Amino acid sequence: MALSIGTKNINTAVFISGTGSNLKSLIKFSNLKKSPISIKMIISNNPKSKGLAFAKIYKIRKKIFNFNKQAKTEKEILELLKKKKINLICLAGFMRILSKNFIQSFKGQILNIHPSLLPKYKGLNTHERAITNKDRYSGCTVHFVSAKLDSGKIIIQKKVKINKKDTPRTLANRVLAEEHKLYPEAILKIISL
Q1: Active-site positions?
Q2: Is the pLDDT score of 5 beyond 50?
Q3: What is the maximum span of the chain, computed from C-alpha positions, in angstroms?
Q4: pTM, 2 dp
């Protein structure tokens, strides 16, 4: 792990595309005394992302990037992250796949949260797939980001029981509640490695 151990205030950037509920839980976590992270930037590929509202509420710098020219955009993001001395990136519902070059520039310092018990159900529609396959459990995973989609080293997982009456939406809501607890736990875990 490239993060310096025992540090307080690890400068962190959170990448979002949607509602930002995991971003909100990370901000709350960053405001706790025991928290090792300090969120300095919110980055999004979606100007309509509801999560961007948290930038204003919590006075965190936000930046929206258009990913039509991914290589150029990623170069700009890397320059910005370097300028802001960012040491950790948390992907929180970020719906773009980062390039191999980008990931290698931040090797071991990008985390992602995924709504399944990886390695099961990489990619999208995880809850539908778990229900269709009559799985007894779903859950969520925080993992290091590698060049292969949802395949990096797993840090921590949480199981969620699938009920007979579950729909993808009801299951998603219960998994999301666990995600909000799991992401901070994962950060504390890697810091103590």
Answers
A1: 114
A2: no
A3: 50
A4: 0.94
